[in-house]
Structures are given as structure tokens and as C-alpha cells.
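Q: Could you fold this chain for me?
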Amino acid sequence: MHGYIMDKIIEIEKDIKTLRTQGATNVALATLAGIRLGANNNTKSVFQTLYKVAKALAYARPTEPLAQNAVRFIFQKESKDADFYLERCDCYEKMIYDAKAKMGDTGVEVIHDGGIYLTHCHSSTVVSMFVKAWKMGKRFSVIATETRPLYQGRITVKELLDEGLTNVSLIIDDAVASLLTVHKTRIDAIFLGADLLSYNGFVNKIGTLGICLTAKKLKVPVYCTSILLKFDPRPFDYQVIEFRSGKEIWSGAPKGLKFYTPVFDYIPYAENIKIISEKGIIKGSKINSLATLLYSFIKEKTHAEYI
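A: Sure. Below is the predicted structure, expressed as C-alpha cells.
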């Protein structure tokens, strides 16, 4: 592989690992971009070369099943023709956008005039739903958490304001329980993204578990917005929860200070949690059967997994 192309692929991988590229959709698209770069480079061992690139990018962060399912889909068959893999990349990308469009239409239906909605972290899907509902003429309020330590909530509120929403507020993460229980602010629903869907729960930004436990106690509906292409067929293992550097919390910390820095929470499905997906609004218990029915390649062991 030419040095320039290899350097670009290494740069993509680095951006994923350092969170310059973040969000499940962006990581999946970056993975497809890396495969395309490799496919446009003359090589004798097309399958092995492209699979190596795909696996490095899709597994650069462990909780990225949308990118990892791309590998399952694209490399089901072995071909010596690079165009075959380019076509598979295009097909998977279309699959993502078609699913997100269907999911977005469903999500807008549960956003109502006068509603007050809470969201945590930054989900491009959640933002798109709010923006679409607003442009349809619905008027509602959004409360977003700042989402420490990287403040992705600031991205959420900025995007909403840039799109013309006027009733947008930002709170610190620790204010959620107080907001709901002490100040008794009426929250009509909580909208969250998901990095990973599993049999018994979903994975989202750290802080999500506390929000969901409070919501369960107060019977506040929680909507996890996620296309079923994010379903991970493997039994969930807490070891996939990524830990980041303590410098993200305190760059000038005293010497010898220890940190506990998980990036994500695992949230068990509960009665008040529904999944907004391309198959409509579903219970967590239905995810496995629907995901593997809709995308059969998710459960099948690919040719690539044998090499």
C-alpha cells in the first residue's frame, strides 16, 4: 500500500482513538472511508489488505458495533476485485442513512407542543429529531446536560440553537436528579443516543445510568434512539467499557492522584425505556430478534472472522 494512503488510514484511526472523530455514525463512516482509500490502491491481496484496514478502524474503540457490523457485512465474501468492496461500502452507507431516516420519522411523533425534554451527551440522531420537529412547527423545550469531562452537551445545545430552537437550556450533569425530584421540573421524556445495543441493555455516555434510574423511579419515559445496526450479537462484557486518561478530567492534577474514568454506562432495559428504531418504537426485549431478522449478517460468522 502506498505510503500516502497508509498515512491517511493511520490518521483516521488516530482520530477515532483520540475522539476527534466521535459518534457511532461518524466512526462507521470513517471506517468506510478507510476501506475506500485502501480499495483505490493497487494491491495483489485485496481481501486481506482491506480486511486488515477495516478491522483496525472498526475496533479502534471497542464499543462501536455500527462500524464493526460494517466489517461483518462488507467482508462476508472474498473477492479479488476492489470494486466489489467499494460497492459493499456504498451499500452499507445507504443502509445506515435509510435506517436513520425511518427512525427519525418515528421519533418526531413522540415530540409534542409544550413538551419539556431532557437529553444527555451529544447524539446526532436526537439533535436531528428535535430539529425536524421544530421545523414542523412544534414548540417545546430542551434541557441538555453539559456532559463532563469533554462537554459534548455543549455541542448539542450549539447545534440546536444554530438550527433556530429558542427554548434550550444547559445544566451540569449533577443537577439532573435535583431537577426531577427536588425542584420537580416536569420532564415529559428523556431522549438518549446509544453507542451499542445488546440483548439486555444498551451502552451510552457515562452518567446515563443515574439519569435512567431516576427516571424509572419517577416513571419518566426514556427513549433510546438507535438504529438496529448498532446491535452487538455478542454477550455483553463490561470489559468493553473504555477507560480514558485522567487528564481529561484534570490535566494539572497533583502527582499520585488516581482516577476512575469509564467513558460509558451500561443501562439495563426497563419498563420505562423504549427504543426508537427503524422498526418503530420497541421494547428492549425485541431488539435481538428484530435486529438479526432485519440484518441477518449481524449474527452470521463472516469469512473474515476465520483469518
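A (continued): Residues 55 and 76 are 13 Å apart (CA to CA).
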